[in-house]
Amino acid sequence: MSARYRADQAGARRRVVLQDGVEGFHLTFTRECRGCCELGEYAGLAHRYDFDAKASCYIGSGCHECGYTGKRRDVLWVPFSYEEMPHVR
Ligand SMILES: [Zn+2]
Questions:
Q1: What distance in Å separates the CA atoms of residue 23 and residue 16, rounded to the nearest whole number?
Q2: Beta pairing class for 57-59 and 50-52
Q3: Pairing relation of β-strands 22-32 and 50-52?
Q4: What's the rounded Cα separation, in Å, for the pair 25 and 84?
Q5: In 10 A of CB 36, how many CB atoms?
Q6: Does residue 74 contact residue 31 with C-beta atoms inside 8 Å?
Q7: I need a labelling partner for 88 at 20 to 30 A (CA). Which of 16, 37, 69, 81 fits?
Q8: HEC secondary structure over 14-69
Q9: Near ion ligand 1, which residues have CB within 5 Å?
Q10: Centre of ligand 1 from the C-alpha of residue 51, in Å
Q11: How far is the CA of 69 from the centre of ligand 1 (A)?
Q12: pLDDT value of residue 83
């Protein structure tokens, strides 16, 4: 099966990833590692960590979960259109 591409709502070209028959795409982003970055409610402890402006997340102190980088790559599946989502019965 060859890869298909489709434009998302912002006009960016995305590789189509099917999930339960709905066309969507993978959004990858960087966020702080929850294993070693304890921000607490309202980020009250944020001053204890470095802020990565490029990834716009905090960097934890490092643990085995994130490979001692303090941040993790995360992937989120997003549908191209919410109208294509199956209706909840
Ligand atoms: Zn970690």
A1: 6
A2: antiparallel
A3: unpaired
A4: 13
A5: 19
A6: yes
A7: 16
A8: EECEEECCEEEEEEEEEEECCCCCCCCHHHCCHHHCEEECCCCEEECCCCCCCCCC
A9: 33, 35-36, 60, 63, 65-66
A10: 14
A11: 7
A12: 78
State the Cα–Cα distance between residues 51 and 43, nearest whole angstrom.
12
- Tell me how far apart the 2 most distant CA atoms of the chain are, in Å: 49
Residues belonging to the chain: 89
Q: Reduced to 3 states, what is the DSSP secondary structure of residue 76?
A: strand
SS3 73: strand
Is residue 33 a contact partner of residue 60, using CB atoms and an 8 Å limit?
A: yes
